[in-house]
Amino acid sequence: MACGPQAVDTDANKVRVTTETTDGDKASSFTLDYEAFTLDNGLQVFLQRDASDPIVAVSTVIHAGSSREKPGRTGFAHFFEHMAFNDSENVPRGWNRGQIPKWGGSRNGGTWSDGTIYYETVPKDAFDKILWIDSDRLGYMINTVTPEALEREKQVVKNEKRQRYDNAAYGYTNEVIRAALYPEDHPYNWTTIGALPDLQAATLDDVREFYDLWYAPNNATLAIVGDIDIEETKEKVKLWFGEIPRGRDIPDPVPQPVTLTETKNLWYEDNFAKLPELRMTFPTVDGSNSEQYALAVLGEMLGGSRTSPLYVEIVDGAKLAPNVSSYNSSSELAGTFTVRVRANAGVDLDDVKAAVETAMARFEAEGIDELALKRVKAGQETALYASLSTALGKANSMARFNELQGDPAYQVKSAAAIRAVTADQVMAAYERHIKDKPYILTSFVPKGQAELVVAGAERATVWIEEVKADVASEEVSAGDLADFEKTVTVHDRSEPEFGELPLLKMPAIWTRTLANDAVVRGIETNEIPLVQFDITLPGGRWAEDPAQNGRFALLADLMEEGTATKTPGELEQAIGILGASINVSAGSEDLTIRATTLARNFEETVALVQEILTEPRWQTEDFDRVKSARLTGIKGREANPQAIAAMAFNSLIYGNTHPLGRPSGGSEDSVSALELDDLKSAHSDLLTATPRLHVAGDIDPDRAAAGLSTLAEAVAPTGADRPAYDIPTQDNAGRVFFIDVPGSKQSVLRIGALTPASSHPDFNKIQFTNEKLGGGIAGDLAQMLRIEKGYTYGAGSFIPRGTVERPFTMSTSVRANATQASLETIRDMVLAYGETFDEVAVEATQQKIIKASARAFESLGAKLGTLNEISQYGLSDRYVEEEQAELVAMTDADFKRIATEYMDESNFVYVIVGDRATQLEPVQAFAAETGKGEVVELDIFGQPVE
Asked: Three-state SS for 578?
């Protein structure tokens, strides 16, 4: 594969960036068109019209990440991101988080070392409202911040830190590495999330100072992509953003690369980890250095494939771990190259370190394999197309890379730069930054297994929060609105009206009947030269008895490990050279092979899928490897409180004999007992089922059907009925269960009860009724537990589609000392829920669901998901439109009936996973006060504790 000429054409403010790729006699190109202009206040703006869907994506990047912070106020850029989603001078409190979803949109933000991003995707009728909100955030929000709002948001951010880092295995690794690699005064010395004491110490003056220093239009980029009129949008941007005052002149940060004079060897005993992990972190180059491209390729060469030296030595050879990874990360000021190995249980990390060194020696001796280099470059082309396949993907890319790299088309050009990397450049980068160079070595091991750390390691120091029992000391609320004098502007900054309502239109779906009565459904779209397709066959937990739980999951793993004629490495290479990815997965009812490929390589990719499906590699050594990896993954699952809660909840609902009550992927006992012949039997059964086929992307129906016809011919359906299972009597309804994870900084709550299957006449109504309660950040649960109380980072509820009864489930992770208060709040909300549906609530719910449908079919993955739902549940090709008609016909009485009948709190099963020492007593108090009897204690496997 060769990278052809890259063209940049400029006509006034219109820019077209084109990159071309050739692969033998095949060629393709990708073009990024945009228009650019800069307001007088310095705000840089990039616009692109994409009328494929009636939506608009808006992205704003502020050049202010954690690197702009100062010691003692770490985590402040991320904290400020949270604050900026609250009210501003002209946007009422709660509208930023609450109203955008009700308008059918999605919104979020993110902070990293170098910047902060805010982004939304909305139906086009809400576009003016987003410009209003985003401009008010940038220019008119600081006067609305109150001490009470500050304290509440502190709790939310602290909850996020607890959930993602403090209560997660290996959550402190990045903190340890940064502190060791960078000097104390280096802006990368601390993590983006920061330290809890620093967050708690933040003051209102700190908020104002950060805003004044960094939140200015001349330190930001705005990108808008979607169904817009370019000239009209320019005027709108000038109207809404043009009056915001220019800030102080802010010079671009100067790179601050670091060097090490010696290797630093550190270890940490992780309260949540179940497996030992080793990381080697080498300092490299910043994001403006062109050597980053060679280092990116080096990561793939060293550990990114089954033929890479790290994989060959550590996984295949020494059998120390199920997988390895190596990668370069070049940020604005500095960069790092990381080798990461999460080893099998009980493995001595000295052995892992020795194996890494052997792999490095192998790499030095063997050099760069040109075929592997070709694979990496093909994969980069596919990744580029995928990342820019949606309006939001393009908006985020242009905004981020213009602000941080000075080039909105940087991602396109970077992809071309990687495809131009030579083997000599890769080896030169290795010798300059990795070979015999000092690095940060970290050993993170499970509690009580210090003997596994690398010899000579020094214990790392990490600040650990004390788990408290008293929620009253941390009760917060939004408080009163700020008293301020509104900034005078020429333009009226009142809320704009909605534009013309976009009409939902499902994409055209074509069908073809193939051999063996297999039906392929497809959606054609030519926005990007990619195709996604899948073949789905009945077979998963539904087709295995309890003693063989995990059989199909293990079969799926093995099917990715080569074929009868290809070793694992050869199969991976064949897939990668096509710029494709192929994934085999087993769910509760099906086994699916899903592929993404360059459109020009569709037929070749189908041929590989067929080979994977029909000719697995029945080699004992491959079976042993995937079985070991599966067991390691099951062991790692024991460290995840959310997974522990979910597995226990499902078991309590369905019992251990029903497929939906068994652990996804199997248990340690069931997988340990599986043999290769068990997988051969499962595979034989698989090929007697009628397949469902789906395809979406840049391919016409006739070509797609012809290409997939061989897959339909590869099976021999027998028409046998699938097994039937009885759902047990719900004896656990109304009971409370507690699982101890010592030292947990949060309690995971999973609460709910069975509801009807998808075929039931009320199923859609149940989903509609749930939307107000648990539908994202705008839902009542999130608004109360996060926005009002500050107990959690997020909360929601859902009801999945299913061929059998599935549970209505509420899920959240709350700070430990708010466990009882959260349980009481949730119960009270559910008990009163039906009465909250007045005519206003009904209309808001209907509008939210209907408008959100404008975004439902944008990506290839969304299109493929739509096709899967149609075929799996026997839905109409117009089912979304039909369901919306059903929604519109619902009255407040209908919503009240559904809430009363299917969200009956007395039937709920309550599962709490948390710190027994501090939280069992509050949970017992909740159970006693609500008449739920004794709390039943379970172990992490969902079994009663004696």
From this structure: coil
Residue 27 dihedral angles phi and psi, to the nearest 5°: -145, 155
CA distance 296 to 300: 7
Give the model's pLDDT for residue 3.
Answer: 44
Inside any domain, residue 27: no
3-state secondary structure of 278: strand
| Residue 458 to residue 591: CA distance in whole angstroms | 47
Same domain, 350 and 291: yes
Mean pLDDT of 152-167: 86
| Phi, psi angles (nearest 5°) of residue 278 | -120, 135
Q: What residue type is 23 in one-letter code?
A: D
Within a domain: residue 17? no
Which residues of 84-165 form beta strands (DSSP E)? 106-111, 116-123
Which candidate, 560, 596, 566, places its Cα nearest to that of 578? Answer: 596
Domain range spanning residue 881? 736-938
Burial 529-562 (b: 16+ CB within 10 A, else e): bbbbbbbbbbbbbbbbeeebbbbbbbbbbbbbbb
Q: What is the full DSSP assignment across 727-762?
A: PPP-TTTT-EEEEE-TT-SEEEEEEEEEE--TTSTT
pLDDT for 155: 85
In a shared domain, residues 240 and 279: no
874, HSE (Cβ side, Cα atoms, 13 Å): 6
CA 714 centroid distance within chain: 34
For residue 37, what are the contacts with CB-CB under 8 A and spacing of at least 6? 13, 45, 234
User: Is the pLDDT at 352 greater than 70, yes or no?
Assistant: yes
- Residue 906: enclosing H or E segment and its boundaries? none
Residue 225 shares a structural domain with residue 323: no
Residues 242 and 310 in one domain: no
d(CA 17, CA 9): 7
Can you count the helices (H) and strands (E) in the chain?
A: 31, 26
Cα gap 634→701, rounded to integer Å: 41
- The per-residue pLDDT for range 748-788, each reduced to its tens digit, is 999 999 999 999 999 999 999 999 999 988 999 999 999 88
Q: What is the DSSP string of 600-646?
A: GGHHHHHHHHHHHHH-B---HHHHHHHHHHHHHHHHHHTT-HHHHHH
In whole angstroms, what is the distance from residue 193 CA to residue 815 CA?
A: 17
- With beta carbons less than 8 A apart as the criterion, state whether 509 and 521 touch: yes
Strand 736-740 versus strand 936-938 pairing type = parallel
CA 249 to chain centre: 36
Provide the CATH number for the domain around residue 648: 3.30.830.10
Q: Which amino acid is at 452?
A: L
Q: Within a 13 Å sphere around the CA of 615, how many CA atoms are in the beta-carbon half? A: 14
pLDDT score of 474 more than 60: yes
Please tell me the total count of domains within the chain: 4
Q: How far apart are CA 924 and CA 930, in angstroms?
A: 10
pTM of the shown model? 0.92
Write out pLDDT tens, residues 55-91.
999 999 999 999 999 888 899 899 889 888 888 999 9
pLDDT digits (tens, 9 = 90+) for 120-139: 999 999 999 999 999 999 99
- Least confident stretch, 177-186, 277-286, 535-544, 589-598: 535-544
Distance CA 72, CA 184 (A): 11
Q: What is the C-alpha separation between 624 and 561, in angstroms, rounded?
A: 11
Q: How far apart are CA 808 and CA 769, in angstroms?
A: 11
Residue 607 confidence class, pLDDT cut points 50, 70, 90: very high
Cβ neighbours of 93 (radius 10 Å): 16
Rounded to whole angstroms, the Cα distance separating 19 from 196 reads: 46
Q: What number is the average pLDDT over the span 539-568?
A: 94
Percent of the chain whose pLDDT exceeds 90:
77
52 C-beta neighbours (distance < 10 Å), count: 15
